[in-house]
Write a structure and sequence with these properties.
Length: about 325
Amino acid sequence: MHVKLPRPAIATTRSGRVPPRRDGAAALGGRQAGSATIAYPQLRRRSPRDIACARIEHMFVQEPMERWCSFPECRRPYYAKGLCRSHYQQQLLGRPLQAIRPRSSVRANCDFTGCDKRAVNRGLCQAHAKQRQKGQPLRPLRPFYGTKGPCRFDGCAKPRVAGGYCAGHAAQYYSGRPLAPLWKPKVGCDFPGCEKRHFALGFCQGHWRQLREMRPLTPLRGRSGRIINRGYVLLFEPTHPNAHKTGYVAEHTKVMAAKLGRPLAPFEEVHHRNGIRSDNRPENLELWARGMQPPGSRVSDLVDAALRVLKLYRPDLLAKSVFDSKEGAEGTK
């Protein structure tokens, strides 16, 4: 820490000049006046550094001072306003000053009947003290069950959430409803022998439709093994490698897979040569691959299509092109 030292004062005359130095007698502590010598006590001049150090030491000197509470017969240490901490809190809250009860080394229980918790606030435990602070009548505390373990309701294995109950039974308990087993979602159909999943009113979708149309409940027909969708024949074979998630597989896909001796790859397709989608004879099917070559059409198919158009609309151009091709062949010979 940097300490700024005071500048020593220099005695000057009225004219502002420094007086001349005294003679040797004055330097030795005395002054000679005529023949008599007047002696002065030896005074040691303190340097500015010594003065600054003395001031710093005085700042850190701690004088022992014991102050006690001004309340009668209170031997607690002083805190503020002439009082100890406890009496100062009483004065700060506007309460009359009272003697502080001595702390007992024996653990005291709550003064409320039947409460075995530790007293922390004027003879009451923390929960009963909060009831008194809110102006409520003191009442027994509810037991604490924690959140570990199953629900307290008989037969319920769900984890505890509040009051020892699961979320469903806690909602029943705190809303004042009688505790009852929780509703469980239904899984299967109630019709005997029906293994389909539940849809509504205890039945699957098929039996629920029969019930809604007020028809007698009968066993449902099994899924048909053959349907036609957009002209394609579909077979119900869920175990086929190329089957859709609905369990159906296209008949032309099945025929081509049997012909190749392997299931078709995702990029392979089966096309009908004659354009009839229900004609699934092996000789009418051909295998195409998507993404294996650039998109387009076969050149032979394009040539055949061009000839059909020319024969229909411009047969003269077709005859001229044939004549030119013949002349070119004769000229090369």
